[in-house]
């Protein structure tokens, strides 16, 4: 089960438009954390599998997906023009304030606040499932 922090990372990633990529550093800046923490969260993402090494089948598959979306590579690196900053994504200032507020709260309070912040009958578990479904679809070549 993903942690609250991992869900925040996946939330940012799910807003990246088709044909664009984002660096761990940019995600980290948006979440006021380190790029290493973002990399750790992404490594636990079941949608991609956390496979390491550029010669793995999953990495080759991810590259093919990105190429189909129009992303171009040069010397096994994504060209700079395809990177976007988290500030240009559809992440509202309200969401960022809530993330920071939750991050400063004791862990026991986070669950209570999350439940209070959820509108209607949508539980945090439903939101988490939807985000993981989006990430899984994106990993299979479909856009969010």
From TrEMBL:
The protein's Enzyme Commission number? 2.1.1.63
Q: Which UniProt keywords apply?
A: DNA damage
Residues forming coiled coils: none
- Gene3D superfamilies the record matches: Winged helix-like DNA-binding domain superfamily/Winged helix DNA-binding domain
For this protein, the record's InterPro entries field holds: MethylDNA_cys_MeTrfase_DNA-bd, MethylDNA_cys_MeTrfase_DNAb, WH-like_DNA-bd_sf
Q: What is this protein called?
A: methylated-DNA--[protein]-cysteine S-methyltransferase
Domain Methylated-DNA-[protein]-cysteine S-methyltransferase DNA binding intervals: 5-46
* Matches recorded under CDD domains: ATase
| Stored PANTHER family | METHYLATED-DNA--PROTEIN-CYSTEINE METHYLTRANSFERASE
Q: Which GO terms describe its biological process?
A: DNA repair
Pfam family of this protein, just one? DNA_binding_1
Tell me the GO molecular function terms.
Answer: methylated-DNA-[protein]-cysteine S-methyltransferase activity
């Amino acid at each position: 089960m993903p942690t609250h922090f991992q869900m925040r990372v996946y939330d940012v990633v799910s807003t990246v438009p088709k044909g664009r990529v984002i660096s761990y550093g940019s995600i980290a800046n948006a979440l006021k954390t380190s790029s290493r923490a973002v990399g750790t969260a992404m490594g636990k993402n079941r949608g991609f599998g956390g496979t390491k090494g550029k010669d793995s089948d999953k990495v080759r598959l991810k590259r093919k997906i990105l190429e189909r979306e129009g992303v171009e590579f040069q010397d096994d690196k994504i060209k700079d023009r395809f990177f976007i900053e988290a500030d240009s994504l559809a992440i509202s200032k309200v969401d960022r304030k809530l993330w920071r507020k939750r991050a400063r709260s004791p862990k026991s309070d986070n669950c209570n606040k999350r439940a209070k912040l959820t509108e209607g009958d949508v539980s945090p578990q439903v939101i988490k499932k939807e985000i993981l479904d989006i990430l899984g679809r994106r990993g299979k070549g479909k856009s969010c």
